Each structure stands twice: as structure tokens, then as C-alpha cells.
Amino acid sequence: MKIRNIFRCRKGQGVIELGLSLSLFLVLSLGVIEVSNMLHSYLVLTHLTREGANLTSRGTEPDVALDAIIKSACPTLQDGASCAPGNQEQWRVIYSLIAPEDMAGCLASPTTSNPSCNYVVKDQIVRGTLDPAGAGVVCSATGSKIGCEGNDASPADVYTDIGQGKSIYAIEVFYLHETVTPVANFGVQLPNMIYERATF
């Protein structure tokens, strides 16, 4: 067979083209699946925080509200009781009640210069045991009442535009998202920590 005929031969060209296009299609498909999964988790957490803050601001006991919203977020959040098998080490939900230091004193003289109107964390409840890679417990971004080390946040720093004498009900969710496809093998890095907060 002459060399010229070898270069003109088209046998196997379709197989090579199929292999190249199929691998590209596979990578794109994995990316779509992964981004869709991450978007689903984000939307579940957004609804969870909004509903939790809404329930607690309407007078529902915080423990009852947290149980209800965590149960409704199954299977993204699995507490092991209402939603098995349990993935508490992958998430943390924090309820915070933020109010003036002395509500009665603040209402008597609702000015920013009144020290009674300084906003502090009055109550805080935490669910989940998220500890990303042994880096320590994830702290609330609105301030802490539970002795969370390394948290310098103050409610006054976070909420600067609230009216004097008002209370704030905040729900925060930290979620360590895990990939469901081998997309990381192709050098694609997606953010793994999702944080969402809602206040009423």
C-alpha cells in the first residue's frame, strides 16, 4: 500500500470523531447535573431560612419551628430522626433572637445614644454539627450567645438600619455541599459551602 493511500484512507474517522464529541458531551452533562444539584440545594436552603424566620417571628416556639423546617428540608438536611440516615455533620442551622439589651428602657427612650437600645443576641439555638475538615465549629454571622470562639460579629455591625425597640428573628444555614458526579476529576472546582440567612 502506498503512503499516499494511507493518508487518504477514511476508515475509523467516524469512530475518532464520535470519541472526541462523546467525551466533550460527557463533561458538559456532568457539569449540568452538578450545577443543577447545587442549585436545588441552594433553593431548599433559601426556602428553609425564610420559612423558619417567618414562623419564629409569628410566635412559634423556636424548637418547634426548627424541627419543622429541618424535617421539610429532607433529604438535603437529614437529622437522623425524622429523616434518616442522618448527615448532621454536613449542615448547621442557627436560630437567633436579636433585640435591644433592655427592651423596656429602649422603648422609653428610643434613641441610638441610649445604651439600653444596644442590640444583642438574646436567644440562640443550634442544630447540626457541621465542622468542615476539623476547622472548628461554624459560628453565626450575626453574633453568638453560645460561646462560639473566633466570632467577632456583633448584631449592631450586621443590622445597622433597624428601628429602635424592634426584635429580629434570624435563621442561618451552613451547608457543606458534596458533588454527586466525578466532575472534579476533570479539574472543575465548585464552591462547597452554601450559606443562607433570612431575618424577620
Give an overview of the whole structure.
36% of the residues lie in helices and 18% in strands. The protein has helices spanning 3-8, 13-57, 62-72, 103-108, 155-158; strands spanning 91-100, 119-127, 168-176, 193-199. Strands 2-1-3-4 form a four-stranded antiparallel β-sheet, covered by helices on one side. α2 packs antiparallel against α3. The longest helix is centred in the first third of the chain and has 45 residues, at 13-57. It starts with a helix and ends with a strand. The mean pLDDT is 82.
Summarize the structure.
With 200 residues, this protein is an alpha+beta fold. It is built from 5 helices and 4 strands, in the order αααβαβαββ.
Key phrases:
200 residues, alpha+beta, 4-stranded antiparallel sheet, 5 helices, 4 strands, 36% helix, elongated
What are the SSEs and their pairings?
Elements: H1 3-8, H2 13-57, H3 62-72, E1 91-100, H4 103-108, E2 119-127, H5 155-158, E3 168-176, E4 193-199
Antiparallel strand pairs: 1-2, 1-3, 3-4
Helix pairs in contact: 2-3
How large is the count of helical segments? 5
Report the biggest beta sheet as strand number plus sense, adding barrel if it closes.
4 strands, antiparallel
Q: Judging from the principal axes of the Cα atoms, what is the shape?
A: elongated
- Count of domains: 1
Reading the helices and strands in chain order gives HHHEHEHEE
As a whole number of angstroms, the C-alpha radius of gyration is: 25 Å
Low-confidence runs of at least 5 consecutive residues: none
* Overall mean confidence score, pLDDT: 82
Could you give the order of strands across the largest sheet? 2-1-3-4
- Category by helix and strand content: alpha+beta
Beta-strand segment tally? 4
Helix content: 25-40%
Distance between the termini: 81 Å
How much of the sequence lies in strands comes to 15-25%
